[in-house]
Amino acid sequence: MKRIQKLPQYLTQDQTKAFVRVANSFQEKKLAFRKNNVLLCIKLQLYAGLRVQEALDLKPEDVVLGEGTKEIKVVQGKGNKDRIVPMASAVVDIISFINSYLKPKPNVPYINFKTRKPVWEWYKKIGVEAGITNFKGTHTLRHTFARNCLRNGVPINVLQNLLGHSSMQTTLEYLKINPSAEELNLAMDKIKEETE
Predict the structure, then answer these.
(1) Residue 143 among the catalytic residues
(2) The pTM is what?
């Protein structure tokens, strides 16, 4: 019997904004959320494409914050593979803040959870408060990262490296997601401009 392949679940732009808005309010209001660096986990998934376990394992010694270099070394990711991931400014800002003010030990993970379960519990709470009904798991933010990369012209082979996929087939799954109505209309407007 052939296995049914599900399309990757991702957040729309509006859902992403709502999710981040609620996460930022949790950061201000909920001590346990702030103390465990859950916002960092969210940003590592949403803006660097890390798997949740990779985010949980990230240590200060795995981060390079130099003048021209801002990157994360994912050590022993899935399949025991290492990779280098560039950091978006949203990730740089929160890591710089944590490094400057909280002064974490270089070999101790930033995020204070050992398993994915408490992360998922926080994500569910944020999703509910943000009114997101299709939030299916912690991987949703990683899928959102991949989707946003493709929408903004990142080549598929570069995305494969960013995500740490061994097989291009895995990365190609993101190409099966249909464009939103807005994206389709923008593309059609471009075609119209070019042909008229």
Answers:
(1) no
(2) 0.84
